[in-house]
C-alpha cells in the first residue's frame, strides 16, 4: 500500500524552498534600494508594482518587506506607504572634525552613546608612524569604541594616538562614554582642528557585523583619516566603520569655484 506523506512532511519539504525564495526576494529588494533614486526617506513602489517587477507573489513580497523593516532598512508610515529609513546619523564629510561625533549626534536631536571595546598600548607600524609623524615602533594608545545613536549601534571607531601626546590616559577615563576630544583638550590642551582622510566601502567581518547588528558580509562605509590639532600636527589616526543604513556622510558647502565656471 502506498503511504501518502503527511501535511507536516509536506511542510518540512517545502520550507527550505520557501526560505530560499524569501531570501532571494530580500536580496532583490536590497539591490533595488542601491539604485540612485532610492535614497534615505524615499518612498518605494506599491506592493502590487513591486511584486510584478520582481516576479514574486504578494505574500512573499510582504515577508521580504517585513524582514527589511525589522532590520531597520525600511519603515512603514501608515497609509502613506513604505519608505527607506532615514539615517540616524548625518556626518559632515568636508568640515573640520573639532566637534566630535557625540556633538554631531546631539545637535541632530538624538542621544549619543559610547561603549569602550578595548584600550591597549601597541607599537606603530611603518604606515601609521608616517601618518602620525612619529617613529616606527613608537608606543600608540589603541582605543576601540562602539558608538550608538538612541541606543542603536551606528559605527565602530578605532583611534590610534601617540602615547607621548596623551601620557597617563587610561581606559577608565573612557569607560563611562566620556568624549575623547574633550579629554584631550581639558587634560593636554590639545584642540582638534581638522581632518584629512578617505571614504571607501569594505565588507565587515563577523565581529563587526555582530556589533553593528547586520548580516555577516554586509558592506560598510569606512572612513580612514588623520586628525590634526590647531598647530597642524597629527593627533590621531582614525578608522571608522559605519552602519550602511544608519549613517550618511554629508558634503557641505561644496560651491563651484571660478576654475569650473566654464562648465
UniProtKB/TrEMBL annotation:
- Please name the Gene3D superfamilies in this protein's record: Chorismate lyase-like, Winged helix-like DNA-binding domain superfamily/Winged helix DNA-binding domain
- Quote one Gene Ontology molecular function term: DNA binding
* PROSITE patterns per UniProt: HTH_GNTR
Which InterPro entries has this protein been placed in? Bact_HTH_transcr_reg, Chorismate_lyase_/UTRA_dom_sf, Tscrpt_reg_HTH_GntR, UTRA, WH-like_DNA-bd_sf, WH_DNA-bd_sf
**BP GO annotations:** negative regulation of DNA-templated transcription
Name by which UniProt lists this protein = GntR family transcriptional regulator
Q: Where is the HTH gntR-type domain?
A: 19-87
Q: Which CDD domains match?
A: WHTH_GntR
The answer to whether the entry has keyword Transcription regulation is: yes
Q: What domain of life does the UniProt record list for this protein's source?
A: Bacteria
Identify the keywords attached in UniProt to this record, alphabetized: DNA-binding, Transcription, Transcription regulation
Keyword Nuclease recorded:
no
Record organism: Pseudomonas thivervalensis
